[in-house]
Amino acid sequence: MSSFTEVLVVGEHERGTLVDATLEALTFARSLSDEIAVLVCGDFDLADRLAQFGATTVHIADHELLNGDFGPEAWGETLAQLIQTEEPEMVLACGTSRGNEVMAQAAARLDLPFVANCIELSEAGTEITRVQWGGSLLEQTALTADIKMISVSHHAVEPTEADAGQPEQRSFKPDLAEDLARTVVQGREIAEAGVSLATAAVVVGGGRGVGSPEAFAPLEELASLLGGRVGCSRAVTNNGWRPHSDQVGQTGTRIAPEIYIATGISGAIQHWVGASAAKQILAINTDPDANMVVKADYAVIGDLHEVVPAIVDEIRSRQAD
Ligand SMILES: Cc1cc2nc3c(=O)[nH]c(=O)nc-3n(C[C@H](O)[C@H](O)[C@H](O)COP(=O)(O)OP(=O)(O)OC[C@H]3O[C@@H](n4cnc5c(N)ncnc54)[C@H](O)[C@@H]3O)c2cc1C
Predict the structure, then answer these.
(1) Ligand 1 atom closest to Cα of 267?
(2) What pLDDT is recorded for position 2?
């Protein structure tokens, strides 16, 4: 289906490193148009990677306010100016916090409506299904603006490649006032080294059933054997067993691993919305009727204090073979 002449995509990047969320937006954009233009804020060379995912034109916005760290006001104003010049029918970002912030900035400056976190559009882009409340509610929205500004729900689309050949690269000089640098990243602290919870391919989650901070050791061991990360429920963070940075859910991190091994977690809706993007779920729980067990792809009904060490032993013995 190509319903739109051209779709303009916000190329989200972190100081010149493209973030995977942009690839989700590009994949979604390809279902709407054959002509995909991408805005890159800052003089960064991302054209080859963008073309691998279908970009046919790359607008490189060059300005000193854009060549360093992310700034929502400067990015939003740049997007607004490009929209005014190009007048695309559809403007799209991935619904990350940055993507939504930039779109909201641009929409407010142009007095256009913006529909965030969409998962499905009608052919004309006027009927939209979007997720609300962290994915626990689907909302039908009507959008009537001539220039449609939407973000696609993060993790709703699996990025796939579609080489568009050499994209046309256009330099664009936005007119940005100094006071647009109002929100500036002043420093970065690496909270922990290694794989992040949000991007880990394997997450081993522990809930109240784990019972104590020390009892997370076998979960840590399992996660490390599988190259993954430990996550937890809010019952765990409330008890002070793990830091909030490990919490999965509505008020924690949204995860999207290849497999989520959820142990001693009941699967309350606030936890589920953070875990539901996992491709496969293995629940380990003593209660066969726990929500997590009912929704999981695989379940082991049993005591996690026996099941997790048994899995660890099995992996170790296979590694030794
Ligand atoms: C506004 C709001 C926001 C929230 N945000 C979040 C959030 O972001 N993330 C989140 O997780 N929660 C969140 N919650 C809390 C959520 O509602 C639940 O209370 C919480 O997820 C429960 O955690 P749990 O599954 O670890 O504990 P429980 O619900 O107590 O479940 C424990 C599970 O462990 C099993 N179990 C016990 N012993 C064993 C054993 N030995 N072996 C195997 N299984 C065992 C039990 O059968 C049970 O299923 C939020 C709540 C509110 C109101």
Answers:
(1) 25
(2) 62
- Within this chain, do residues 173 and 269 fall inside the same structural domain, yes or no? no
Q: What CATH number corresponds to the domain at position 169?
A: 3.40.50.620
The stretches of the chain forming alpha helices (DSSP H) are 20-30, 47-52, 72-86, 97-110, 217-225, 234-238, 269-275, 291-295, 304-320
Q: State whether 208 and 173 are in the same domain.
A: no
User: Would you say 64 and 41 are in contact if contact means Cβ atoms under 8 Å apart?
Assistant: no
* 167 lies in the same domain as 216: no
Query: Which residue's CA is the closest to the ligand 1 atom numbered 31?
Result: 266
Q: What is the CATH number of the domain that holds 256?
A: 3.40.50.1220
Q: Is 245 in the pocket of ligand 1 (CB under 6 A)?
A: no
Q: Is the pLDDT of residue 118 over 90?
A: yes
pTM to 2 decimal places: 0.72
Mean pLDDT of 216-231: 96
Residue nearest to atom 53 of ligand 1 (CA): 270
Is 189 within a domain? no
135 lines ligand 1 (CB under 6 A): no
Q: Is 295 in the pocket of ligand 1 (CB under 6 A)?
A: no
The pLDDT of residue 191 is 63
The CA-atom distances, in angstroms, between 214 and each of 206, 209, 309 are 12, 13, 14
Which residue segment(s) compose the domain that 236 sits in?
202-320
Across the range 160-181, mean pLDDT stands at 92
Query: Where among 133, 148, 180 does a domain terminate?
Result: 180
> Is residue 148 within 8 Å of residue 127, measured between CB atoms?
no
Average pLDDT over residues 43-61: 96
Q: How far, in Å, CA of 152 to CA of 211, rounded?
A: 38
